[in-house]
Amino acid sequence: MIRAAELRDIPGIQRVARASWADVYEGIIPHDVQARALDTWYGDDLVAQSIESDGARTFVADEDGVIGFSQIVGSELTRIYVLPGEQRRGIGTRLLEAALPAAGRIRVEVEHLNVRGRRFYERSGFTQVGERAVDVFGHPLVISVYECKLPRA
After folding, report:
1. For 79-112, what is each residue's pLDDT tens digit?
2. Environment class of residue 1 by beta-carbon count within 10 Å: exposed (0-12), middle (13-18) or buried (19+)?
3. Which of 12, 33, 46, 52 has the highest Cβ tally under 10 A?
4. Cβ of 99: how many Cβ atoms within 10 Å?
5. Rounded to two decimals, what is the model's pTM?
6. What is the CATH number of domain 2-150?
7. Domain boundaries along the sequence of the chain
8. Percent of the chain clearing pLDDT 70 (strictly above)
9. Where are the alpha helices (DSSP H) in the chain?
């Protein structure tokens, strides 16, 4: 079931983020950088703010607990993760569909070496429009920027 996230989902969102990052970014982002990013970006207060924010919409996939989540802020898809053992069941697609508005241009950034993530967005109708270099806690990364133009309502 896909539904709007609630404060009670914070531990589940954090669990999904940690498991997904460990799987997706193995060999791409060093473990110490992952730990620092997760502690910083998925702390209780920040996750609560993102759930309660008027400018963000956060959704969870709930099957007797949170197994995935997505978030959109304005016209940017900022997060979408599904537990590694739950992937390839259409959960990511349903989380994406829940997060997207009916019309407009949506942007998402994905680590360039995250091939699975890039393929997911491309299969979902996103087109790569650029790349940019970023520094994540002292670790350089290349980010691929994707956009998707949604139909007008």
Report:
1. 999 999 888 899 999 999 888 875 578 999 999 9
2. exposed
3. 12
4. 22
5. 0.89
6. 3.40.630.30
7. 2-150
8. 97
9. 10-24, 31-41, 44-52, 91-99, 115-123
